[in-house]
Design a protein that fits this description.
Number of domains: 1
Strand order of the largest sheet: 1-2-3-4-5-6-7-8
Mean pLDDT: 96
Bound molecules: phosphoenolpyruvate
Helix content: 25-40%
Number of strands: 8
Number of helices: 11
Length: about 250
C-alpha cells in the first residue's frame, strides 16, 4: 500500500565531477527499480545531479534548508532557491544537524513549514541517542520529536512528509538496529501518528529506517512490514552498492 522509498544521503561527500561519475554508473543499474529512489546531495551538486537524472524516475533532495523566506542569514539556502532547482525532497533534522549545528524540534518544525509552503517534500529524521536508549527513553524521545516537530500541521500536509527513523547510535557506526527492533520502533512511531491524525492519513505516511543500512542487511530490514524504505549514508556513496540496496526496495 505504501511505495517504499530508498534515499541516499551523501552528507558532505562528492564534488560535481564525482557526482557525474557516480550517476553514469548508477542510472543504468537501477533503471528497473520498483521503489522510489531519491538522491540527497550537497547543495553544490543539486543542479548537476538534477540535470543528469532528467528522463529517469530518480528524485533529487537537499540535506537542509533555512526556515526564513530570505534575508540576512549568511551561508544559508532558502526553500525558494531549492524550488528553483526543481528539488523534490529535503532532509530535515538529521541527527548530525541536531548534534553539530544546534538544530532543535522547534527549528525542525519551522523548516518543515518552509518546505511545505514551497511544495518541497521533507524527509524528517527522528531517533534516539545511545544514552537515551540505554536510559529507556526511546519512546519518550520519539514522541516528543514527533509532537513538537509536526506541531500545527494539517492532515493534508502529511501527503508530502516522509519520516526517517534513525537511531543515532546506528548512524555511520556499522551497527544497524535489528530488523525486529527497527520494525517495532517504526510501529511505535506510527502509533504516535495515529494519536494526531485520522487513520486514513497515518497509515499512508512512509517511515524509513536509517542507520548502517547496506546491501548485506537491506533484505531483512525491508522484509519487515513497518519499514517503508531506507535513508542510506555510507552505503550510498558507491553506485554498485547503492543499486543493490535499491533492488531490495520492492513495492
Ligand atoms: C544517515 O546519515 O542518514 C545514515 C543512515 O548514515 P549511515 O547509513 O552511514 O549509517
Amino acid at each position: 500500500m505504501r511505495t517504499p522509498i530508498i534515499a541516499a544521503n551523501w552528507k558532505m561527500n562528492k564534488t560535481q565531477k564525482e557526482a557525474k561519475v557516480f550517476l553514469k554508473e548508477l542510472i543504468p543499474l537501477i533503471s528497473d527499480a520498483e521503489c522510489e529512489v531519491a538522491l540527497c546531495v550537497p547543495f553544490t551538486g543539486l543542479a548537476v545531479v538534477k540535470r543528469m537524472v532528467k528522463g529517469t524516475k530518480i528524485k533529487v533532495g537537499a540535506q537542509n534548508v533555512h526556515f526564513a523566506e530570505k534575508g540576512a542569514y549568511t551561508g544559508e539556502i532558502s526553500a525558494d532557491m531549492l524550488k528553483e532547482l526543481k528539488v523534490d525532497y529535503v532532509i530535515i533534522g538529521h541527527s548530525e544537524r541536531r548534534q553539530y549545528f544546534g538544530e532543535t524540534d522547534e527549528s525542525v518544525n519551522k523548516k518543515i513549514a518552509a518546505c511545505l509552503a514551497k511544495k518541497l517534500r521533507p524527509i524528517v529524521c527522528v531517533g534516539e541517542t545511545l544514552e537515551e536508549r540505554e536510559g529507556g527513553l526511546t519512546e519518550k524521545v520519539l514522541e516528543r520529536q514527533i509532537r513538537e516537530g509536526f506541531r500545527g500541521f494539517k492532515s493534508k500536509d502529511f501527503d508530502k512528509i516522509v519520516i526517517a527513523y534513525e537511531p543515532v547510535w546506528a548512524i555511520g557506526t556499522g551497527k544497524n538496529a535489528t530488523s525486529e527492533d527497527a520494525n517495532a520502533t517504526i510501529g511505535y512511531i506510527r502509533q504516535v501518528l495515529r494519536k494526531y491524525l485520522p487513520k486514513s492519513i497515518s497509515e499512508k505516511v512512509r517511515i524509513q529506517y536509517g542507520g548502517s543500512m547496506n546491501s548485506g542487511n537491506v533484505k531483512e530490514l525491508m522484509s519487515m512490514p513497518e519499514i517503508d524504505g531506507g535513508l542510506i549514508g555510507s552505503a550510498s556513496l558507491k553506485a554498485e552498492e547503492f543499486a543493490k540496496i535499491v533492488h531490495y526496495g520492492r513495492a
